[in-house]
Amino acid sequence: MDVRKIFLDEREIPRQWYNIQADMPNPMKPPLHPGTGKPVGPEDLAPVFPMPLIEQEVSQQRWIDIPDEVMEKLLIWRPSPLYRATALEKALGTPAKIFYKNEGVSPAGSHKPNTAIAQAYYNKKFGIKRLTTETGAGQWGSAIAFACKLFGLECQVYMVRISFDQKPFRKLMMQTWGAKCTASPSDKTNAGRDILAKMPDTPGSLGIAISEAIEDAVTSKDTRYSLGSVLNHVLLHQTIIGLEAQKQMQKVGLYPDVVIGCVGGGSNFAGLAFPYVRDKIHGKNLTVIGVEPAACPTMTRAPFVYDFGDTAKTTPLLPMHSLGHSFVPPPVHAGGLRYHGVAPLVSQLLVDRLIEARSVKQMECYAAAMLWAQTEGFISAPETSHAIAVAIQEAKKAKEEGKEKVILLNWSGHGLMDLTGYDAYMSGKLKDYELPQSEIDSALDEIKDYPKP
Ligand SMILES: Cc1ncc(COP(=O)(O)O)c(C=O)c1O
To answer: Is the pTM of this model over 0.70?
Structure first.
């Protein structure tokens, strides 16, 4: 019988994170101060993040030790199992071997606690007492609520309005772990009040929620902001996924031809992919694909520019693919993928063609997630379904070509709190959104005079 799951012993867990900045052929362009147009220094970021995380943000060191206190908490659910999707392979009649890293086994249900634990630890060590953050789908909010509780920090989460309404149980999870959860835009911040005055019925966006969380952090005592994706240190903490996967794949003597992850800000994709991109930089032949919603096509339709990471323009200018900071994506169910930008590290690798990008419409994603549930059993997060849809595309291609390809995807989270989307799909209410070029153009028009990377 074919192997179904590949485990690592706790003693085999990687003890260091991998920093791709040490290996990139073209280094990431520096974030710029919007006032001076000069690269930001650590002191510019100090009101927002604790210094140990700022140091990781700019570090060029290839391997960074995982502190024992962080490892102790990660061991609650790590190492995560690597599965072979034999039932899906059979249903597709493909010669491809499909493997998936199951990040849904964490207490919050996704990859997000990998960085939440590390961020809570470094903030606590730096003397911070309270963290603020945004959340799209609610996965990140749950993860940081859980991590803050483990390290004795207070936690305030701004949750994008549309997800707040679609996913009430996520709010309850955050509250169970002791956090406060507020729908965004809210009347608690200037940024939220401004948006509400202009767009009272807005579904909200990650960009708006980030503005609220940053404003709260910089105007409150002993408080810092925590971001669940996009930044270098977040991607760094997620590399434990790919480093574990490499050891697990070695155990079955296989190496992937295709590595796939869904992309919102880019952290779960980077977590699985970056250790493999390292191999690619050093000559390995493989395809690495980031998958985004067609309704929020940051990597496939947006230019590589300098833009703000949030709607209220509080962050430095980041070198990234961006649809424009004022772009509010259509209310697709994959709330965690509704972000106007994407990680600068992912953007640079895309520019350098070390990775590829693909976009998928939500109907195809739900069809893929339904097939997955009915074969592999697990109910996927709507975000994760994007990776599944492309894994299925690749498996079908392998069938047409008669090739025994090895496909590896990141199963970034379960969808047990996301069943409203499945309900909409099954009752025929779900639709695809067409995104007219004019909408992208008008958001991009606002940033046309910004510095060019
Ligand atoms: C399950 C899941 N997968 C993926 C994402 C996208 O985030 P990122 O691109 O940072 O991995 C999210 C974000 O909320 C998520 O909840």
So the answer is: yes
The distance in angstroms from the start CA to the end CA of the chain is 52
Whether residue 136 has its Cβ less than 6 Å from ligand 1: yes
Q: Where are the domains of the chain?
A: 5-10+67-109+233-443, 48-61+111-231
- What are 60-81's pLDDT values in tens digits? 999 999 999 999 999 999 999 9
3-state secondary structure of 381: coil
Q: What stretches in the chain show pLDDT beneath 50?
A: none
What distance in angstroms lies between residue 38's CA and the mean position of ligand 1's atoms?
Answer: 31
Distance (Å) from CA 268 to ligand 1 centroid: 6
Architecture, CATH, for domain 48-61+111-231: 3-Layer(aba) Sandwich (3.40)
CA distance 323 to 100: 30
Does the beta carbon of 80 sit less than 6 angstroms from any atom of ligand 1? Answer: no
Q: Output phi, psi for 41, to 5 deg.
A: -105, 170
**pLDDT tens-digit readout, 392-432:** 999 999 999 999 999 999 999 999 999 999 999 999 999 99
Nearest CA to ligand 1 atom 10: 267
385 lines ligand 1 (CB under 6 A): no
CATH topology of domain 5-10+67-109+233-443: Rossmann fold (3.40.50)
Kindly compute the dihedral angle of the four CA atoms of residues 124, 129, 134, 136, in this order, to the nearest 10 degrees. 60
